[in-house]
Amino acid sequence: MTPILLKGTVVRGRGLRLRFPTATLQVSYQSSQEIAEGVYASRMLVDGVSREAVTSVGVAVSVGAAESTVETNLLDFTGDLVGKEVELELVAFLRPMEHFSSLEELEEAIARDREQGRRILESI
Q1: What is the CB neighbour count within 10 angstroms for residue 79?
Q2: Average pLDDT in the 120-124 region?
Q3: Which end of the chain has fewer surrounding CB within 10 Å, N or C?
Q4: What is the DSSP-derived secondary structure letter of residue 59?
């Protein structure tokens, strides 16, 4: 997969209390490629520092979202990013979007995505 570059601003999300906090992005599309809905291993440039991440692109049906979102979980970062301008590179497709019947199932999937994403990003 050729990496897809997105640029945008971190905005307030839906306020879900998950074990893995995410940065919700208001993005502008910077590629001629189509973006398939799903979960990606990614890298986010924050304040000039590239950070490994896992990103969900699409309608989060598992938590009742009605519109498409881009949500990124940085693997080794804590802090408030709201209002920051960032660049996001979608590096490798991990899986399509799925429906989860509980937040616990969603958190388990995110944990698996983080492990798989970290392995992929460390190998390239």
Answers
A1: 9
A2: 94
A3: C
A4: E
pLDDT of residue 106: 87
Residue type, 98: E
Q: What angle do CA 14, 78, 44 make, to 5 degrees?
A: 80
The pLDDT confidence band at residue 67, using thresholds 50, 70 and 90, is low
Domain 4-123 has what CATH class?
mainly beta
Assign residue 121 a region (left: φ > 0; alpha: ψ between -120 and 50; beta: otherwise). alpha
Per-domain boundaries in the chain: 4-123
Structure tokens at 113: 């995505």
**50 CB neighbour count, 10 Å cutoff:** 11
Residue with the bigger pLDDT between 102 and 87: it is 87
Q: How far apart are CA 53 and CA 113, in angstroms?
A: 10
Burial (CB < 10 A; 0-12, 13-18, 19+), residue 1, is exposed
Dist CA 58 CA 79 (whole Å): 24
pLDDT at 15 over 70: no
